[in-house]
Structures are given as structure tokens and as C-alpha cells.
Design a protein that fits this description.
Blueprint (H helix, E strand, L loop, with lengths): L7 E2 L22 E6 L4 E4 L2 E3 L3 E6 L2 E9 H6 L10 H21 L4 H5 L3 E2 L18 H10 L3 E5 L2 E2 L4 E2 L9 H4 L24 E6 H10 L8 E7 L9 E6 L2 E6 H15 L23 E8 L16 E8 L8 E2 H9 L4 H8 L4 E4 L7 E10 L1 E7 L2 E5 L2 E6 L2 E8 L2 E6 L7 E3 L7
Parallel strand pairs: 7-19, 10-17
Antiparallel strand pairs: 1-25, 2-5, 2-21, 3-4, 3-20, 5-6, 6-19, 8-9, 8-18, 11-16, 12-13, 13-14, 15-16, 20-23, 21-22, 23-24
């Protein structure tokens, strides 16, 4: 990577900027730019509005963007459950989301969070966060009410926030963490019944695929198999005693895959290798939302008759097709609270504490203000070559932590360059230097 250099570039619209003489000491590269909005200012990135402050940092692989938000602002931006759902289901979701966040913050930053300087990501790898986008729309007041009415409420086990994972739907029964993650049993993440069959859209599902296609999918995911499928051997421990393993035997080799990992293999490669046929269609004509929905499934193998055109072949060549049928339950990892289960329980009169107590067995729901931090840094983007931000209002700008002026309303581009992190107005044909010969604090 080329050495990063000296200046913050921006349009001349930025004002109140300190200057330094040409004789100033050598410059430190610009590695961070922070925009702090005045009252009422919002920022838009990728079509989504945020309150900020917004912090852009430069890394070897590009630009990272993070927003600092209060806990309640963050929770209002969560997009994990339709706002039209029952009030008690929304309240259960708000408490689960707050608990999940609090536990993450208490555990400290690791992995990408430590690398890019945030507490929690904004995708389904953590919790889906979209800033002000949804809460300012239809039903947003209902979600605001769910967040505010449960302020500082957490799900606790032995006085500490739990790993409050949740999933879209589990079917008839949730899963044990040791059966999905292979980790030591967690008392509050053990199987419980869920009232979804016949109500939730993917409480039960099924699809079929040619055995040859199955082999190609798992081969694309790295298994040492190929040719024709000979056998699938299933090592399936009783519930709560660990993960199921599939041993796949083909004419070109034998390899094994954990049953939970098969979902990932299908969702990475099935629709790439077989577009149009994957995700499969249900009997009602609708497609599954993704090729493989959950970790809870059974496999059956049948042979279908030869296709019509094969009737022209000699009898010994009319082989038919080996077909694998996957019959499963639920959508998601299957651990913790089922969101559809919460909806159904709420419609049947359950309170949010009833819902949480059912899915997280042995826990209590209590106000724990002393455990809930005041703010959170949310990772929105990382590894970007450039980021475009629209400022609605005005914002103070800090460069490498030092006040550098005020940004007026407009659309701005932040870009990685040999001069460090550059910022300029989107209407400018080229960046106009804002600060030169600045000795940024080391």
C-alpha cells in the first residue's frame, strides 16, 4: 500500500478552519474524520439516516464508518421484528436486543470490532441496525413505545446479562446450543416447545434436489467428494448431546460435514450453481427465502423414474435419478427466542416477561440500570474505497481528534488516498485542499 500523506482535502465550503504556517513541522497522516451534528442535524449513508456522531477511520483495507449512539437511539434503529406485531412481542424483542447488546459491550471488543473500532456491527452477524430509517416510518411509534416502556430491562441469569440470541422461527421446538454450536451446554439455551406449526410460514418446509446436485454443492464448499453419490451416513446423537454429523460417500471419495454446516454450504453455493431451481419452490408456488432454512431437518433418499426422453435409450441406460429430500422446521439457527413464537404467544395473551421466561429458561427479567452503558459505537461500513455522506444541517468536523471547522449541508465524499483520508464536496471535480502543513497530534 502506498504511504499515506499529509492533507485533509475538502471543498472550500468548510469554514472556521485553523491554519498553520508553511514552516510547520512535518505532518501526520489523516487517519480519522469525525462529523458531529448540531441539534437537528442528520446524516444519510447508503440511503439510511443516522443521528451520529459519524466517525470515518482509515485502515489498510480502506475506510471504516461507525456511528456513536445512545443505547435507546440504537435500540430504536433495530430492524428485527415487524412493528405491526403485538405490543408484548415487540417488548420481548426490545428487551432481548438490549440484553444482547449489553452482554456484547461488557465482553469488550474482539475481532473486526477491535480492528475497526466499534462495539457491535449493524448486520445480521450481530443485530440488524438501520438508524432512523424504519422508526420514522409506519408503525415506528409502536417500536419506540416498546423500547421506552422496557427501559433498562435486561434478561439475567445469576445476575448477569444472558447471551440473548433469537431466531425467526423454530417450528415445533427450539434447539440446544450444544447441538448447534458444539459448545458446553448453556442452561437458558436449551430446547423448549414453540407454538408455530400450522401458523408460522416456515414452521415446516421441504424441498428435493438431485443427488448429483447435492454432491456438487458440498464439493464447492470444500468437501473431498465427487462423481456419484453412494451413501449418506448420519451420526445423530440424542437431543442435547451434540451436533449431528453427515458422512458423504461418493465414487470419488468420502468426507464429513456437520449437519449445521450444511445450511451454510447450500446458502453459499446452491443458487449460484443452480439458479432458477434453488431456492426451491414450495407446493404453493412460492420460493423458499433462501436455499436452506435451518439446522433442524431430516434427509430421505429416493429414486425417481427416468425422464421421458430417456425412453429412447437402451433399457440398461435408463437409470432414473437419485433424489434427496430435506424435510425441516423453522428458519434460522433455532436458538433462544423464536420471534414468530413470541408473536403467537402474545396473540394468545402472554406478557413479554412470560415470552422471555419461556424461551430463556431459568432467567429473570429485571431493571438493571447499572449494567446498561450510556452509548454504543455501531460499525456500519468497513473496507470501503470511498464513502458518501449527505449532511442535513451543519456538523462540527474533527480531524485526528482535533477540531477543524464546520461542515455545511451537502453531500460529501470520503476517500482513501496517498494523502491519507480525504474529504471533498461531491460537486467538486477534484478535491480542494482544506488543511495543509498541519501538525496533527500523534
Amino acid at each position: 500500500m502506498m504511504r499515506r500523506g499529509v492533507v485533509l482535502a475538502a471543498a472550500a465550503l468548510i469554514f472556521s478552519v485553523p491554519t498553520v504556517s508553511e514552516a510547520a513541522t512535518p505532518l501526520q497522516e489523516v487517519v480519522s474524520i469525525e462529523l458531529i451534528g448540531s441539534e437537528g442535524t442528520t446524516f444519510e449513508v447508503n440511503g439510511r439516516p443516522y443521528v451520529g456522531p459519524m466517525r470515518f477511520t482509515l485502515h489498510d483495507d480502506g475506510i471504516a464508518l461507525a456511528e456513536t449512539a445512545t443505547i435507546e437511539q440504537y435500540l430504536q434503529g433495530i430492524s428485527e421484528m415487524p412493528f405491526s406485531w403485538p405490543r408484548e412481542a415487540l417488548a420481548a424483542q426490545a428487551v432481548a436486543a438490549r440484553t444482547y447488546l449489553t452482554r456484547r459491550l461488557l465482553g469488550g471488543r474482539r475481532g473486526d470490532a477491535a480492528t475497526y473500532g466499534y462495539d457491535i456491527c449493524a448486520t445480521n452477524r450481530c443485530q440488524v441496525y438501520r438508524g432512523l430509517q424504519l422508526v420514522e416510518g409506519d408503525g415506528g411509534d409502536r417500536w419506540r413505545a416498546a423500547v421506552s416502556s422496557t427501559e433498562d430491562m435486561l434478561i439475567l441469569y445469576d445476575g448477569r446479562p444472558i447471551e440473548a440470541v433469537f431466531t425467526a422461527m423454530v417450528g415445533s421446538r427450539s434447539s440446544a446450543n450444544q447441538d448447534v454450536w458444539g459448545s458446553a451446554p448453556v442452561p437458558y439455551l436449551q430446547p423448549v416447545d414453540s407454538p408455530e406449526v400450522g401458523i408460522a410460514p416456515y414452521a415446516e418446509w421441504s424441498f428435493s434436489i438431485d443427488a448429483q446436485q447435492f454432491v456438487q454443492i458440498v464439493r464447492a464448499d470444500g468437501l473431498e467428494v465427487g462423481g456419484e453419490l453412494i451413501d449418506i451416513v448420519v451420526d445423530d446423537p440424542p437431543e442435547g448431546e451434540g451436533r449431528t454429523e453427515l458422512t458423504i460417500v461418493t465414487t470419488h471419495g468420502t468426507d464429513s460435514i456437520l449437519a449445521p454446516d450444511l445450511k451454510g454450504a447450500f446458502n453459499r453455493y446452491a443458487d449460484v450453481l443452480y439458479p432458477g431451481s434453488m431456492p426451491a419452490r414450495l407446493p404453493n408456488g412460492k420460493r423458499l427465502p433462501e436455499p436452506f432454512l435451518s439446522y433442524t431437518y431430516e434427509i430421505s433418499r429416493t429414486r425417481r423414474p427416468a425422464r421421458a426422453h430417456e425412453s429412447l435409450l437402451p433399457a440398461e441406460d435408463r437409470r432414473g435419478r437419485d433424489v434427496l429430500t430435506f424435510t425441516g422446521e423453522g428458519w434460522g439457527h433455532g436458538l433462544g427466542m423464536s420471534q414468530w413464537g413470541a408473536r403467537i404467544m402474545a396473540e394468545e395473551g402472554a406478557s413479554y416477561t412470560d415470552i422471555l421466561g419461556h424461551y430463556y429458561t431459568g432467567t429473570t427479567v429485571a431493571r438493571a440500570e447499572e449494567l446498561v452503558p450510556d452509548e454504543v459505537v455501531v460499525g456500519l461500513i468497513d473496507g470501503a474505497g470511498e464513502v458518501t455522506v449527505t449532511v442535513y444541517g451543519t456538523a462540527m468536523i474533527r480531524v485526528n481528534g482535533v477540531f477543524a471547522g464546520v461542515v455545511p449541508a451537502g453531500t460529501w465524499i470520503l476517500r482513501s488516498s496517498t494523502a491519507g483520508l480525504a474529504m471533498f464536496n461531491s460537486d467538486a471535480e477534484s478535491p480542494v485542499p482544506l488543511i495543509t502543513r498541519r501538525n496533527w497530534p500523534r
